[in-house]
Amino acid sequence: MMLTNNFKYCLLYFSLLLTGLLQAQNTVTGRITDEKTNKEISNVDIFINDSNTPVLRTTSGNFSVQSDSIIYKLKFQRKNYSLETVDITPETSNNLIVKLSSEKVSSIEEVVIHNEKTKFKNKKENPAYRIMQEVWKRKRNNGLDKFDTYTYKEYEKIQFDANNLDSTFMNRKIFNKLDFIFEYADSTASGKMALPIFLNESLYKNFGENRPGKKTKKLLVAQKTSGFQDNQVITVTAKNLYRDINIYDNTLNYFDIGFPSPVGTDGFSTYDYNLVDTISVRGEQAYKIRYMPRRTEVLAFQGYLYIDTDSYAVLGATLKSTSKINVNFINSVSTELEYDNPDDQTFLPKKFITAIELTPFSKKKSAKSIIARRSVDYSEYEFNKPLEASVFNRREEEYDAKFVDKDDAFWVKARPDSLSKQEQGVYEMLDKLQQTPKFNRIVKIYETLASQYYNITKGIDIGPIFSIYGKNEVEGDRIRLGARTYFGQNDPWRIQFYNAYGFKDQQFKYGVEGRYMFNRVNRFMIGAGTKRDITQLGVQLTTEDGIMSRSFASSTVFARGENASLSSVNQTSVFTSIEPWKNFQVRVDGTMQSIKSANPGGFNLMYYRNGDLRKTVNDSHVTISLIARPGAKFSQTGVDRYEHGTLAPTIVLKYTRGIEGLFNADFNYNKLQFMFYKPILLGSWGKTFFNFEAGKNFDTVPLALQNVIPGNQSYGLVANTFSQLNYYEFVADTYSTLHIEHHFNGKILSYIPLIKKLKFREVAFIRGAYGTLSDASKNINVDGLKYSAPDQQIYYEYGFGIENIGFGNIRIFRVDFNWRGNYLDRQDASKFGIKAGFQVNF
User: Fold this and answer.
1) Are 100 and 81 in contact (CB under 8 A)?
2) Strand partners, 165
3) Using only C-alpha atoms, what is the Rg of the chain?
4) How far apart are CA 131 and CA 311, in angstroms?
5) CA dist., res. 158 & res. 374, Å (int)
């Protein structure tokens, strides 16, 4: 928000006055003594404000500390002494006298403290085991659940730094006319340079009600981003790196990968523990326990736990990945956690700091990398205060693009800690970069690759760029060019279209769709579109009626066997949708379409109607869809949203009614479909993807409108299809399918001496389908007798895959080995097959 000139002058005058008054608070000097003996004390850790990292360890009784920001508080900590906190004012900033008092340490009976790792015959001999047993007995739950109502403030700061920069790197041609950015770089402990390149601050107000009903709301109050306000790709990338964790859980979610928690009840199966010291943590005496993974090849942490000596609550913890972390694009991850413990049963989050080092090519410590650091401060907790019901309502103003715009004065008050000199420089540097054409070109390249669209002028993008080329037997080589309107990330309307041409059939195809959103709160939206295209039907059971979805036919460049089973579809659709509740959508689609074979000589869609032989199916239907995504997180409020990575399930219930006679439609029919999809973390054993679908056609319809068990004759990986089925091999009035795929994250291969160096990860999967097809549904089609359902027994496939294939930190290739379990006597049955593809994930 721009300040008026008068206010800017007042602010400048006030700043100069305040600077003169508080200048001395940037430096504090003094002397530290023992409270009883008055003797000077050395080896004292000094912390500035609320920092968890000491700025100085004294070598004598005198000290002097400096900071780029105002020092309003100092904390003094030394072994066998109580933590001392002193408020700093201009009057006390010079010659401060600090007196530390010794404190007797309580302990568990017969506990022996070891500084070095000690081997024990069994875990019961380990004093750390006895301490952790007490922690498990008193396992705490988040204190928010015990109160009728609660509110608290949450301040989040995400910063990206380019790390390990050197003079050779800074002198590269790419930085011509951009070299001023290195004025904002800072030296690191390695002697290299770190350059801040991105900073995002967010302030939230959280509301909760546990009784009488369960309600929560997280209101974004303010957000400030360093020069990337309009760059949704970068902001979402930053947010997507992090997940909320609870140290008491058995599994901690990082990048949607399960890491065993060192405080989990099964921690001793993964970690070795060693009690090394007792220290004071924020005035509380705590056991300091070091833990390390028994095997460095597994996904696990190392670090320290700080356990209260009286209540056995976790006061804090540090978690750092091992040097052999096997996660794509990640060199290391570390987290510092602080908790408050209001009573013996609960805890409250106080501060979380997570740093992630990302590198695309190498895991060497000297490699150029990005350090993504996120800190979250929780404060201003209030409990059992009455909350109006309207607090939990979604309001129109919350979705206004300018709702979170706040001035600098607001942020000075809102931040728990003032920004460092380097952090302040990020805003200044990015403002300058926004005026540099070369930088904008670099950002544009990144945005194009990430969004698949290239912006040619204000309001117009062309793409998707990865859909330009395709190939199939009907069209031969296929070219598709498209475009969309795009004025900003919160556009309430969008128009998209594409044109395609097949060089073999020499036919033009097209598709166009428009959508408009009337209300950002409940996302009330309408849309309409039409297309004429060649499509591979029968590759998805719970289909979408969207016009702009990419044709599967144009995606298959390499395939096994011959695929002539393509359809020519002319379709016009209208839809409306609304979200009456968060993450619950009601959608109604009206569709008019005509379907015929795109290759009559090789694929027969002809059918009988009232004794007449027909080659084109005319269909008009209405579909009502209920779509639930509990726990899903989205960014922005426009007609298109960007989803954050979560483990949220997808639940879909659809009812379709075909209406004979409407726009010359041929059939009345009723169809009901259900889908449930959920990724599940299974601790250190990896992650399982679970997908279940079921449906029923209650009436007789021709093949073009029938349920086809999805086959995959391509050599690529296609989710929720059957790799060894041919297209249209199984057709069903009533069906149910189940796909279970488990990713072990290298759990097994890490035991094999030579293979483990390759850092491959293993995948296991099984798929099954069962269905029935009536005689009437067979007889309506000219070629009906050759179609059947998997009704003799459950059709199944099984196999395993190797993923994480690549080099350095780019390991995005996967190969699957598939076996067909039964129905092996069928003509052209594919008993074994290999699929391969790219999967870009952690």
Assistant:
1) yes
2) 193
3) 31
4) 11
5) 4
Q: Is 93 helix (H, G, I), strand (E, B) or coil?
A: coil
Specify the DSSP class assigned to residue 60: S
* CA–CA separation, 17 and 687 (whole Å): 58
**Residue found by looking up tokens 């546990």 in the block:** 210
Triad 675, 676, 680: Cα angle to 5°: 155
- The number of beta carbons lying within 10 Å of the beta carbon of residue 603 is 19
Stronger pLDDT, 424 or 515, i.e. the higher one: 515
Please tell me which of 40-44, 52-56, 276-280, 303-307 the model is most confident about, judged by mean pLDDT: 303-307
Q: Which phi and psi angles does 822 have, rounded to 5°?
A: -155, -170
CB 301 within 8 Å of CB 289: no
- Residue 301's alpha-carbon distances to 145, 298, 332, 751, in angstroms, are 28, 9, 10, 18
The 3-state secondary structure of 734-801, one letter per residue: EEEEEEEEEECCCCCHHHCCCHHHHCCEEEEEEEEEEEECCHHHHHCECCHHHCECCCCCCEEEEEEE
Residue 486: DSSP 8-state = E
Is-contact 530 496, C-beta < 8 A?
no
Tell me the two tokens of residue 487.
């004025």
The rounded distance, in Å, linking the Cα atoms of 638 and 400 is 10
The backbone torsions φ and ψ at residue 367, rounded to the nearest 5 degrees and listed phi first, read -70, 150
Those residues whose C-beta lies under 8 Å from the C-beta of residue 231, and which sit 6 or more positions away, are 443, 447
C-beta separation of 580 from 570 below 8 A: no
The model's pLDDT over 780-803, given as tens digits with 9 standing for 90+, comes to 999 877 889 999 999 999 999 998
CA-CA distance, 624 to 643, in Å (whole number)?
A: 23
Closest CA to 836 of 815, 821, 818: 815
The answer for residues whose C-beta is within 8 angstroms of residue 468's C-beta and 6 or more apart is 479, 480, 481
pLDDT tens digit sequence for 130-158: 888 888 887 777 778 888 899 999 999 88
Q: What is the DSSP string of 625-647?
A: EEEE-TT--EE--SSS-EEPP--
Helices 232-240 and 437-451 cross at an angle (nearest 10°) of: 60
Q: H helices within 141-231, ranges in order? A: 167-170
Distance CA 650, CA 238 (A): 24
Distance from CA of residue 489 to its chain's centroid? 19
- C-alpha separations of 799 from 116, 331, 342, 814, 818 in Å: 46, 31, 51, 13, 5
**Closest C-alpha to 520, from 487, 548, 489:** 489
Rounded distance between C-alpha atoms, residue 510 and residue 497, angstroms: 7
Gap between the Cα atoms of 154 and 379, Å rounded: 7
